[in-house]
Amino acid sequence: MPTSLVLVQLFNGLQFGVLLFLVAAGLTLVFGVMDFINLAHGVQYMLGAYLAVAFFRLTGSFFAAAALALPASLLFGLALELGVFRHLYGRDHLSQVLATFGVILFLNQGVKIVWGAAPLNMALPELLSGSVPLMEGLRYPVYRFAIIGVGLAVAGGLYVFVNHTRIGMLVRAGASNAAMVAALGVDVKRLFTIVFGFGAMLAGLAGVMVAPILSVEPGMGDQVLILAFVVIVIGGIGSIRGAFVAALLVGVIDTLGRSFMTDALRLVLPPSPARVIGPALASMGIYLLMAAVLAWRPAGLFPAKGRT
Amino acid sequence: MVGSARVASLAAHWWALPFEERLAVGLFLPLMLLPVAALGLGGYLLVIGERAMILAIAALSLQLLIGVAGLISFGHAAFLGIGAYAAGILASHGHGTLVLALPAAILSSALFALLTGAIAVRSRGVYFIMITLAFGQMAYFVASSLAPYGGDDGLTWPTRTLVFGTRVLKSETVFYYVALAALGGVYVLMGRLVGSRFGRVLRGLTDNERRVEAIGFAPYPYRLTAYVMAGATCGLAGFLLGNEVEFVSPAYMHWQRSGELILMVLLGGSGQRYGPIVGAMTYLLLEESLARFTEHWKVILGPLLVVVALFGRGGIAGIIERWRLGELSLAMLWAACGAIARAQAKRVMGGLRQAEAVAAGALDRAIPRSKASAAAFVARWRLSKMRVGEAVVSLALIVDRSISTTIARWRRR
Amino acid sequence: MTKAVLRLNGIEKAFAALKVTDCLSLDVLEGETHAIIGPNGAGKTTLIHQISGVLAPDAGRIHFDGRDVTDLPVSARAHLGLARTFQITQVLASFTTLENVALAVQASAGSSFRFWRPAEVETPLNAAAMAALATVGIAARAPIRAGALSHGEKRLLEIAIALAQAPKLLLLDEPMAGAGAQETHRLVQTLGELKRRYTIVLVEHDMQAVFALADRVSVLVEGRIIATGTPQAVRTNAAVRAAYLGHAA
To answer: In this predicted model, which residue has the larger pLDDT, B3 or A104?
Structure first.
């Protein structure tokens, strides 16, 4: 395994992790503050990508498309909240699961109706389409670096926001004990809406950034959603810090696992079974990680509700 | 004379049975007679019947988790796939016999349930949902990566499971009755389970965990056992499903299938034992009819789920139970709607009368200047519209009152 | 010497900077009714949680019936004979009154990993359950859904559930809380009859009930026991009066 390949995959893992963080951050906040399990968060991500493609077709510019797609996906998220989700707060988890599952079906199919089932593509922005030399014989795409950069910047911003602003404090308090926050006289409805909208926008941002490098198709949000769940479970519900650490962990381990598991197995097994077991083990990788973390800490690494 | 007396006594006997048993007969009797109908209406009826019964078994096993143990598993379809793959893999190697395949399906599902449940059951609520979802997807991906067994494309079975060397299951009618027998067995088993000591502890833990813990029952062993039992039962359903289609693919384990299973349980009603059976059949019927309607039938199914989630307390079984207990009836429905409508009508009437007063005042002010002025014309037009509106609302109130009186008289008779 | 059914040794519990239980030691002797009283915020609830097993102490050991139970979970302690009632009544609302108690009997009547036989026809369970219900006086309500019982009846049901566990110790958490005068009278009567047969730890605010029922009283103030003795002795203790009335009497 040449170091250059490992390095490339490491960066890919970071990039993947950063995207997962953007999706998971909103999800974990919504769980933590509103105790609302939102399966439809993945379609928020998908919508971000579709809106980016749609606006790109209109404007021809990636940055214009991004600038339009972000508020559009925020509006969409707020519309969903107002129309459907608001009625589900305080309901039992089963109803929430069923209703948000219905939203997924509706939007996945809706997207198929509007844009067709074939995967869509979008060109990289001119400015970021080059590649940067990392070391001897190794170049890495600028765009992917940009994704990592944006993701880290958002993470930093979120950290400042949650830990050093008043609203952030309310969010943290709400994640710890929402009923108490309401009892203290805070307008919880508005807080919920802000948290939800924010999370939706983050997921949309991830979708927008991913549009040029992945094929945009119906159902693309589903697997990302499940990975986001894994991230949240590992990191601890309601904890942004946990989501960050877990997202990077999941991203790196998953990417490295998929690239190198078969080769790693070849060191101990003959090539034929290695080729069968390798991909299977690689796909199981992060779930095994989740199981291992839960066996050690059933509430995740940094649970917001504290440990007794 | 004697004949009719016997019929009368049989009838009395019948009505004396508890409702649930009567309903069970009402469900299973038509199922038993379906192959007869299929002789005339076509063998496709048998296939749909089998599919419904197999999914009903899966839904019943999920009900043990959702309804009795309070565990919302979003990865239950994994057991369908594992059961089908276990039997299918054995079949592809030439060992697809009942003696090997059936235990393999059940045991491998039970093992998966034990391993994943050991981790998942330690958590509650939202964590449990997400963890089961994740493990379900894990199974899906592992199956997708099994290249020698078809990977993403799935595995075609050479033939249905051999029973002691014979291909007796090849006959659709025989397979149908095997599936029916399995459903009947699972139905009885679930009933016994819920009423047993074990079931009581589970129900208690779901009702008030603190209380039951303080009595001396640790939740974990009981819930884990329930999880393994549900998984094994669903593995049986998977065995049957693979046999029915003679094919298995990772899609059986996709999380959307898990979601559909949850819908079946909720649609039918998780509070009654017959709920999942009704739910499975209703869902299949819905899927078949909607799919004939449009290729994009999920666009309709999606909002339906939202409606069920928001309003469907107790599912179809819940509605049946409330009807039975007299809590729900057409008369009450009319009364409830009537009350809402009447309140609205009074509001509208009040608003109309107010507006009429204003318009009449405007008319009075306009007339001194000129009868033919535009303001007078507009005011008169508004006034006449209001009067028509009032007449319509009054008529509606009269109709409503007469219907309510008729219903009340009919109830009193 | 009468054996100590419950022995707390140097129990400490702190939540961040707040020390809720401070080097607490307590003995409950077999057959006695031992009341724990104290002003609000003294740490009574936390103490009960530690005795029953909901919370683990930061330091110190808890011995129940001669065994060290400090590391045992709630259900294990219940199995050993520690029965508890809750301040906010916790009954199984969807079960009948009888089934609530039958479940408690079931806990000590063999394995509950039985999957076939219907539990509701098990006569020994039902008989023991009815006996417990009769002791507290609500046997007539046996077939009623527990959720439909009146508040006072639910409290009695709680006690019946505790009795059905064949307990070595009854831990009663403010049984008079929220009870009206009539209810309190009935409860005191019932507890008065139970006194003779069971060892009871009674955490209470209602002083009349405490003085009517308790053999010994311990006073808990700011996480520490400041006095233990007969009700009369405690009543006249200077430190206790200072704690309650805010000045030395």
So the answer is: A104
Cα–Cα distance list, C212 to C132, C197, C205 (Å): 23, 16, 13
**B91-114 tens-digit pLDDT:** 999 888 888 999 999 999 999 999
CA-wise closest residue to A236 among A168, A306, A304: A304
Q: Identify residue B60 by its one-letter amino acid code.
A: L
CB A279 within 8 A of CB B145: yes
Instruction: Please name the helix (run of DSSP H) or strand (run of DSSP E) that holds residue B306, with its range, or none.
Output: helix B298-311
CB contact under 8 A, C95 and B207: yes
- Read off the DSSP letter of residue B65: I
The type of residue at A48 is G
Q: What share of chain C is helix, strand, coil (3-state, %, to 5)?
A: 40, 25, 35
Mean pLDDT (whole number) for B125-146 = 90
- B133/A contact by beta carbon, under 8 A: yes
What pLDDT shows up at residue A307? 35
**Residue C227: beta bridge partners?**
C219
How many residues belong to chain A? 308
Q: What band does C248 get if pLDDT is binned at 50, 70 and 90?
A: very low
Q: Select from B134, B147, B299 the Cβ nearest to the Cβ of A276.
A: B147
Can you give the pTM of this predicted structure? 0.86
- B83, B105 Cβ separation under 8 angstroms: yes
Query: What would the pLDDT profile of C104-158 be if each residue is shown by its tens digit?
Result: 999 988 889 999 999 989 999 999 999 999 999 899 999 999 999 998 899 999 9
Q: How far is B292 from chain A (nearest CA, A)?
A: 16
Nearest-5° Cα angle at C87, C85 to C89: 75
- The pLDDT of residue B64 is above 80: yes
> Cβ of A121: how many Cβ atoms within 10 Å?
13
Counting beta carbons within 10 angstroms of the beta carbon of residue B391, is it exposed (0 to 12), middle (13 to 18) or buried (19 or more)?
exposed
What number is the ipTM of this complex? 0.90
Residue numbers in B near C91 (CB within 8 A): 208, 211
Give the burial class of A193: count Cβ atoms within 10 A of its Cβ; 0-12 exposed, 13-18 middle, 19 or more buried: middle
The DSSP string of B211-280 is HHHHHT--HHHHHHHHHHHHHHHHHHHHHHHHHHHTEE-GGGG-HHHHHHHHHHHHHH-TTSTTHHHHHH
Q: Which of B196, B208, B216 sits opposite C75 (nearest CB)?
A: B216
Which of A:100-119 have CB within 8 Å of B?
101-110, 112-113
Which residues are paired to C18 by β-bridges? C15
More confident residue, A169 or B1: A169
The predicted structure's pLDDT at residue C180? 82
For residue C88, the SS3 value is coil
Helix (H) or strand (E) holding A43: helix A41-59
Which residues face C28 on adjacent strands?
A: C6
- Subunit contact B263:A280, Cβ cutoff 8 A: no
Backbone angles phi, psi at A267, to 5 degrees: -70, -25
- Looking at chain B, how many residues does it have? 413
Residue C63 is given by DSSP the state E
Q: Which token pair is B363?
A: 């008319």
Amino acid type, B407: I
**Which of C111, C113, C118 minimises the CB distance to B195?**
C118
C208 has which bridge partners? none
Q: Which segment, A148-152, A191-195, A275-279, B236-240, is predicted with the most confidence on average?
A: B236-240
User: Alpha-carbon distance C245 to C235, whole Å?
Assistant: 12
| pLDDT, mean of residues B286-296 | 85
Which among B192, B197, B222 has CB closest to C106? B197
Which tens digits make up the pLDDT trace of B330-345? 666 777 777 777 777 7
Cβ-based contacts of B214 with chain C (< 8 Å): 52, 74-75, 78, 83-84, 86, 90
Contact B304 A110 (CB under 8 A): no
Higher pLDDT: A262 or C161? It is C161
